[in-house]
Amino acid sequence: MRESLFFLFFAVCFGSLGSAKPPNFVLIFTDDQGYQDIGCFGSPLIKTPNLDEMAAEGRRFTDFYSANSVCSPSRAALMTGCYPTRVGIPGVLFPGHKTGLNPDEVTIAEILKSEGYATACIGKWHLGHKPSFLPTRQGFDSYYGIPYGNDMTIDPEMSLAEDILFREGFTAERVRSEKPRKNLVPLMRDEKVIEYPCDQTTLTSRYTKEAVEFIGRNIERPFFLYLPHTMPHIPLFASAHFKGKSKRGLYGDTIEEIDWSVGEIMKALKEYGIDHNTLVIFTSDNGPWKLGNGRGGSALPLRGFKFQTYEGGMRVPCIMRWPGKIVKGSYCDKVASTIDLLPTLAGLAGAKVPEDRVIDGYDIWPLIAGQNGAKSPHRMYYYYRGRSLESARSGKWKLRRTGKKNATVELYDLENDLSETKNLKAENPKLVTEMLQQMEAFHQSLIKSQRPAGKL
Ligand code: MG
User: How far apart are CA 392 and CA 298, in angstroms?
Assistant: First the structure.
């Protein structure tokens, strides 16, 4: 008896019973998908049965924020657990830029890799496309995808693979000599271009295939799969099977194809018998484009769009699923953010968060697990636009300050006025002054400890 207890002790400690194996993480990150654009977040026309099932088996976060309203800063924040302005990425990076996320920053992937995780980035990176800034230099074992926005161009200096697939009559010579054209973007594997211009119609299905294969190759060891979809950023593309099928135009088609992709990933996790040891997170990098004729997404009932610090620009749909650990069909209405994912995943993997620098995010496992009385760790959550701290939320109160001289100040009660329609600043002068003071103090402290972007 004593011997078998002894064995049990060792088995549990050293993982031979399986329970001590660190969890896998799948982080699905869409591009410019609006708050409303999932069935279970209220979309009247877009059908997302797989995401709805994921929510029914997991938890919806109704007050979840990206850390910026545009792509690169939002991703810098996700990767580092910091407000993007702190890590020197306040705005969007372009193919002409020689900057990127500083290799001295510690990314989620680096933290997990140091714990023995297999790591892959499949999709849109957008934190620098020059070799020293690519995912393969920032903690990912492999990379497959378009390195920035799908509306951008190629950088003629990019390294082309020997067996590159040229389409539309392109040649290496033409890539090097012609003026790059908008919407014609490179598809990369690791650090080389493997297809130009990328056929974007099959991109979501190809990302999915890569993701499922990565999962299949790593069922024996913990893994971190980061899947930042290129869609539904414009220009929009869907494969033949989804094009023209949704009731919400091409935009809806792209979301329905992403929903299919989520279903394929869930199916793989279940078939390999690892879904009970896998935390899957689905969210978006920022709010939807403001476009006419239903070409863009919807953040309703929130006010505003991408590029703005109204709720619609930064509050994003978020679902998490982990059978046995997350209560089925539950929801969380506490403030949480993409900057919290680095500390949270590090904690679950048994890794340490860097202690030699400021990290803005918090371990939100108590919120994810639905622990009794769990509160948002963000006494105040900050909304940066470029280098400006434009808005802040404290509990139900949201303060927004825009313009320099004669600044416009808005105060909203998000609990009773989710759509930010009634400016209550005149009724609450003391609260306005206090929030403005706290914002200024935070901004000054951030500026003092700001870290530089990587530069060639
Ligand atoms: Mg985006």
Answer: 23
